[in-house]
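Figure 2 data, in text form.
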Amino acid sequence: GNDEFLSMTTPTARPKPTPLVHFVAGGLAGATALTITCPLDVVRTRLQSTQSDLHTIKKNSRPGTVIFQSLANVYRSEGIRGLWRGLGPNLIGVTPSRAVYFAVYNSAKHRLSELTGSETPLVHLASAALAGVTTATATNPIWVVKVRMQLQQDAAKQKAALAQSTSVGVPPRLSSLAGAPPVPLYRNSFHALRTIAREEGLRGLYCGVTASYLGVLETSFQFMFYESLKTSIRNYRRENGQEEQIAPHEYFVASAFSKLVASVATYPHEVVRTRLRERGTLPYRGVLHCFYLIGKTEGMAGLYGGMGAHLTRTVPN
C-alpha cells in the first residue's frame, strides 16, 4: 500500500490517510509518470501488435538497441507528436485507474485485516485482486482507444507496416489489415470512442477486458510479493538489532524487484490484450485462442514482443 510512503515524512501519531488522500496522490503520481514515459508506451504497443513498422527494426537491431532505434524511427516518420500518440487517453485513463486502484486496495486491505484479525499475504492478494478487477472493468474502453490511437498510421504507412511485419515472420492472416483497404483515421480520442461505440458496440469497447482480468494476477502477485519483501526487511533489521523502520532506498528496491518479477512472469497477457484491441477483422476467437495462435506462429518472440520497452517504462514507476 501507500501507508509506508507517507509514514516516512509523517509522524506516526497523525491519523491514518483517508481513501481520498490515496485517490488524489495515486492520480497525480500516475499522470506524471505516464507523461514522461509515453514514448516507451508507444514503442511497446507497436512491438506487441501486428500492425507496426517496427518489426524490421526489431529483427535487424543489435540486442539492447531496439528501444532506442524504435524511438528514433517513430520520431523520424511522425515527429514529436508520434512519440506522444495516445497520451490523451493515457492521462484520462491512468489517473482514475491508479487512483481507484490504490483507494480500493487500501480500503479492502484495512477492512479484510479487521475481519481476519491480521494482515496476512492472503489479505494482500484478495485486496489487490478486487482492486484490479474493479479498475479493469471501469476503464477498459479508455485503453481500447489508447491502443487504437497508438497504432494508427496513415494509409501508406499501414501498407508498409503490413509488408514489413509479414517479411519478418508475422503471418499475414494475423494482421487485421490483410486483404483489406486501409482503415479511416480517427481524428482524435473522442472521435475514436464514438466510432468504436457506433461501429462495434459494447463488444468493441470491452475487447481485451478478459486479458485485463488476467493482468490482475500480475498486480496481485506484485503487491503480495512487495508486502512479503517489506516484512522480510523488517525481520532482518529486528534480528540484527536495527530499527525496524524501512529506509527509502529499501522501499524502492522492494517495489522495483517485485514489479520486475511479476512483469516478466505474466507479460504474455499484455501482448494478447493488445492484439485483441487492434482495429479490423482479427483471427482470434478469444483469449486462449490468441495465446495459442501467437505461440504457434510466432513463438516466445511473439509472446514477449516489446517486453524491453515495457520493463523500462514500468519498473521505475
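Caption note: Residues 1-13, 165-169, 172-181 have pLDDT under 50 and may be disordered.
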